[in-house]
Amino acid sequence: MAILQVDSLKKSFGKNEVLKGISLSLEEGQVMSIIGSSGSGKTTLLRCINFLETADSGQIFVDGDVIFDGEDKSKHKAKETREKQLKIGLVFQQFNLFPQYNVFDNVTLAVKLKAKEREDYKGNKKQILKEIDENAKKILAEMGLSDKMEAYPWQLSGGQQQRVAIARALALEPKILFFDEPTSALDPELTIEVLKVIKELRNMGRTMVVVTHEMEFARNVSDKVIFMADGIIEEEGCPTDVFDHPKSEKTKAFLAKSFE
């Protein structure tokens, strides 16, 4: 069973139909890269799956659970909505770190807020917070940031800030980790740094969806590549099929321009 399944997802902004019935699936442990020109619908798709936008229709399943059903018009409770959202971790283009908190607090803040909703929190507060802190230290070590835990965002390079953003997402233990153009705000040297971290996450078996303009990264790291154009999936397949043997003329034109 696919860990992520999207069926016939549609989204319009006024008269502009941005997603025209997107369907896709991803198995646990796989990496999917989504490529395409600006305006193709890539980021809107990601935002709909992550509840930052509400799709007009369609369904989204994560780990077999329905997290969105366009036919269900009932108002879900806030807690239920949060639980659904926590199945997915999102790393933004612009890091979105809290400038008033140090690295360690940026990583643990959301987890500690979530922990307060646990029924056993009051009776086990000290132990729960200890476990959260220990897990955060482990994740920061994996991100190569053990020596930056007390630093503030303004004291970090762009690549380090992006790694903190990745650590923060991982701390919530999502089923799937989403990246929206994770290197778009970075210079070439820092881009290499962040892409290396994503490759390491892949080797650890993390399930990931990456919207990217880095074609070589998509070719070398992905299990599946989706090329979007004009609000639809124009072409999809393994990297060899999409990059070396594209069938669609739109895919061919996009790749020719990307590798100029």
Topology at a glance:
Blueprint: E1 4-13, E2 16-26, E3 31-35, H1 42-49, E4 57-62, E5 65-69, H2 78-85, E6 88-91, H3 103-115, H4 121-142, H5 158-171, E7 176-180, H6 188-203, E8 208-211, H7 215-221, E9 224-229, E10 232-237, H8 239-244, H9 249-258
Parallel strand pairs: 3-8, 3-9, 6-7, 7-8
Antiparallel strand pairs: 1-2, 1-4, 4-5, 9-10
Helix pairs in contact: 3-4, 3-5, 4-5, 5-6
State which percent range the strand residues make up. 15-25%
Give me the count of strands: 10
Could you describe the largest sheet, including whether it forms a barrel?
6 strands, mixed
Regions with little confidence, pLDDT below 50 for 5+ residues? none
Order of helices and strands: EEEHEEHEHHHEHEHEEHH
Average of per-residue pLDDT values: 90
**Number of helices, counting only DSSP H or I runs of 4 residues or more:** 9
Radius of gyration from the CA trace?
19 Å
The dominant shape is globular
Quaternary organisation of the protein chains: single chain
Distance between the termini: 39 Å
